[in-house]
Each structure stands twice: as C-alpha cells, then as structure tokens.
Design brief:
The chain is mainly beta. It has helices at residues 10-13, 43-52, 121-127, and strands at residues 32-38, 56-58, 61-68, 71-78, 83-88, 104-107, 109-110, 113-114, 147-150, 159-165, 170-177, 180-187, 191-193. The two termini are 27 Å apart.
C-alpha cells in the first residue's frame, strides 16, 4: 500500500503473509480506478498524501534484491515505478486536486478527463497482494519441471528448473552455474515462472 522501499526482515521472506484487506478497495457505484504519475521515488509520499485527503490509493510492490559492495539487500519496490492507482468518482469528487498532491506529478488523462484503468486489472493486483501491498505468487502457478527465475536473493536473475515444492512455502531449484548444476532452496516468494 504505502510502503515504498522498506527493508524486509530475513525471517519474513519465508513466512506466510496475510492477504491485503481487499474490502478497503471495493468500488462503490460510479467509482473507477485511475493512474497517477508520481515524482521520481515519491510513490510512498504520494500514497500517504492521497490517503490524508481521503482518496483510496494502491501501490503494488514486489520484492527486489539490490547488490552493492558484496552485500545483498532485499527491499519492497514498486511494481510500476512512478505510478500509483487511485479510486475516483469523477462526478462526485474534486479529482483535479489529485494533481496538486505532494508527490503526484499528474493524473494520466485522455484530453481533459482522467483515463480509467480497464476493469479487473487493479482488482487482480489487489487480490494478489499481501498486507504490505507486495504481490504474492501462488504456488499453484508452478509445477515440477517448470522453468523459473529467481527474482530476489543472491542468485536474483538466474534461471533454473523447479525440482520440488513443499507445504512450508519453500522451493528447490536446479540452477546451471559455472558449468555445472547446483540445487538451491529458496522461499516461494523469491521465485517466478520464467515466461
């Protein structure tokens, strides 16, 4: 939701996460999802300011691994950098005030009026997020033998073959590294289907 680049506790990477409270994002009659462009790296500020003005906003996040000086740091980062989703009713709300919100550059428009997001897109992102707004990749999306990509951790960006799924939220992957095969065990959140 409003978390931008928060550090992730290593113990939290493998733990089960509660789903996001989707009822907060249920659309009332006349409401639609719209996209606001934020200033660079100001997604969290924009979300906080929009919430303070009683607008409902959603910032989808994903786990990323950053490498610096032989250190790996896992952070929650926006899935769509510089963009945030906002629920608006153009007939009832003063939507132009969104453009004057700290952290927001402007609403994406089609001429004079904001351009609505196609129905179902943001709702799917909300339903696929945990309580922090981070996207949850479901285990049923993968099967043994599927090609997968590690999206975080020391081997982020590496491709492999899924060897095993267990009920504890861990996966085993066969990676091709340095001319040989290496088995790596990781949290399910660190793996995505390679498509």
């Amino acid at each position: 939701m409003i978390v931008d680049r928060a550090m992730i506790d290593r113990n939290d990477l493998g733990s089960e996460t509660r789903p996001l409270e989707a009822s907060r994002f249920a659309l009332e009659p006349g409401e639609r999802w719209y996209v606001a462009m934020t200033l660079p790296r100001k997604e969290r500020l924009a979300a906080t300011q929009l919430d303070n003005q009683c607008y409902r906003s959603f910032l989808p996040l994903q786990l990323e691994t950053h490498r610096h000086a032989r250190k790996f740091t896992s952070v929650l980062a926006p899935v769509f950098p510089r963009y945030i989703f906002v629920i608006l009713d153009l007939e009832r709300q003063r939507w132009r005030s969104v453009n004057g919100t700290f952290g927001v550059q402007r609403l994406i428009t089609d001429g004079e009026r904001p351009l609505a997001v196609a129905p179902g897109i943001v709702e799917t992102l909300v339903q696929s997020s945990d309580r922090r707004g981070a996207l949850i990749f479901k285990a049923d999306e993968l099967a043994i033998g599927d090609a997968v990509k590690l999206v975080s951790g020391p081997f982020a960006g590496s491709f492999g073959i899924l060897q095993r799924l267990d009920g504890a939220g861990r996966v085993q992957i066969l990676l091709a590294l340095l001319g040989g095969s290496v088995k790596v065990t990781a949290a399910r959140q660190m793996v995505a289907a390679a498509r």
